[in-house]
Batch of 2 targets.
Target 1
Amino acid sequence: MGKSDTKSTENKKRQSIADSSQNSCSKSINETVNGSHEYTIKGYSLAKGMGAGKYIQSDIFTVGGYDWSVYFYPDGKNPDDNSGYVSVFIALASEGTDVRALFELTLLDQSGKGKHKVHSHFDRALESGPYTLKYRGSMWGYKRFFKRTMLEASDFLKDDCLSMHCTVGVVRTRTEAPKLYTVPMPPSDMGLNFKEMLESGIGSDIMFEVGEETFRAHKLILAARSPVFKAQFFGLIGNPNMDKVVVEDVEPAVFKGMLLFMYSDELPDLLDLVSSDPECSSAILVQHLLAAADRFGMDRLKLLCEAKLCEEVTTETVATTLALAEQHHCSQLKTVCLKFAAVPGNLGEMMKSEGYRYLEESCPSLLSELLETIAVGDEDSSQQSSKKRTSSSNIGLNIDHLIDQNLRRLRRRV
């Protein structure tokens, strides 16, 4: 092969490499960001007579970065065309230009038959594409949504109440292109790094005395995690120069658990914390941790403890947990405890526990709520058991007897 042939071959290779490096691809993806709003109109008959063009309006709801609202015209939107109809519209309630969206309005059948009245863009092809709203106040909907006389005689109106389900799908376009790199991304280790700082004591500037134990920590981290510590160290009456704090009414294991959470943002290993105190169970530790979280203004820790306690309610702990939920305003935990305690078998065991005496003394009002919960449960069970009375009469009598016994004991205490 001559020099000229070799040179020609090399030029072709270079050109091929250059051409391949210039090849690329991308795609535009059109999709909707969907959201729904349930709108209920109570006292429909009182809304009639407002006059054509007058409306009542739902609360603002947000979908796809825009605010929306439902407008209901009980006497129609237009006096000339719609005097015998109700009108319903979905309106853009925030600033926006040429916002493209799909809509669905569903008037709910309240008879339970599921025969809803549905107007939807989502389940059919639109010749002109999604609806475009030009500016704030632009609307989509129906002037003649439903004839008033037919509506008032239908199952859509029940107890003078109408309910409708409104869905908005805001059209969004995004562009995707293949990535030319792959960088492995490890999980965040910030919590581990901060936890190591706590355990090593490097750079610590504050010492806590909790019972017979001491803990070293960092004021800036504590101030960032707790408004109470922030005020104590850097507030108007705080002292940024203090180097020691005595903490009362908190057990060392509980304070250690709280510190571990403040540095790692995770619930600590409860087994490690209770290992030093064989008389302290994990449930009791979480109870105290919840109280400490409330005391130091740590809402996330408080919610995590509440969720943990909801999963671990027992006949031995339900009374103290119920009192704790009441004192620290944990509504979901309180509901779980009341329902658990209202079960006949659980109720008797709970009333034998030491925690029940504490509940009587600290939160006597809860006994009345417990009575109400038992009464509701008893009502429901009696309705169900009446259908099966012939096959389970002895069991029903035993349960009723137990409930009556416990109710009498509760009433004497109340």
Target 2
Amino acid sequence: MKTGVAFLSSTLHLNLHSSFSQSRNLFFSPIFRYCPSVLRTQFPNTSHKPIHTVSSTMASSYYPEKARVPPALQLPTPPVTKFKIALCQLSVTTDKERNIVHARKAIKEAVEKGAQLVLLPEIWNSPYSNDSFPVYAEDIEAGGDASPSTAMLSEVASRLQVTIVGGSIPERCGDRLYNACCVFGADGKLRAKHRKIHLFDIDIPGQITFKESKTLTAGENPTIVDTDVGRIGIGICYDIRFQELAMLYAARGAHLLCYPGAFNMTTGPLHWELLQRARAMDSQLYVATCSPARDAGAGYVAWGHSTLVGPFGEVLATTEHDEAIVIAEIDYSLIKLRRTNLPLEKQRRGDLYQLVDVQRLNSESTK
């Protein structure tokens, strides 16, 4: 092999009478590693034409930088390299005031255990049902007494100097309801609000039927936020099924993806961990999820299993279905290491496909 080009020896022929060792050596040669099409295009007619490997010159013609439109942002230097995250898997009752007090206690306990970032579950202040969403909904924009759940999160974030990804609660805005996640900085200020983009409408006869769209409105904006513990992309539960959103967050320079979620007893065992590991692997980022604890007597029964996944798709910490506070360490240096081990960004085929970030594209075109 010379300068990235492999030649087949004129004495090399593959036929039905080749020995096993010859076939094995041919299959695992550089020719096959770099040219999977060789098997079907070269050997049937025992052609002796040169077979080109993916040299650096050829790779440049793939235009990996064009696989993201606009081009992917460089991963920013995070404010911290290592920190502890807490996943607070909470029990949820019909008593809203109790749920708020309970969440406050869990956040305090998490900080006492060293957490600098706390993640709460999806719909932690209300039962998860279409009947409950209008009753428990809060006016987050008005704040104060109109939104006691977010007022608590703001106050405790400031008092304990901790960043909080506040799970989600039903939000009322005018005549519309949303499933919304608020992110508070360690100063207690609201840094971002994510409204669930993909509504959970499912119908598996005999197992589960639920239509969030009966009461909720879908959000319109992906949400990425800079915090004291790095740049975080936010999704809520069903959002995790759409890899485009995670890929978009990765292209915007996220370090961590947070998905408060309440998967159910049908899809939870099959898909919950699988999806978390897939999103982490796709984007080569950390993925953190937080579920409500399981209540077998509730109308909607959550799967639980709040989890932290690393940038290689490895489960770093998890729990079962009962109440728990999972404390785990995030080390952002592993993102760079994994991207060096497996350089996906340099291998994307911008000549064949593109991920278009419509918001960024429109924003840049108006400058």
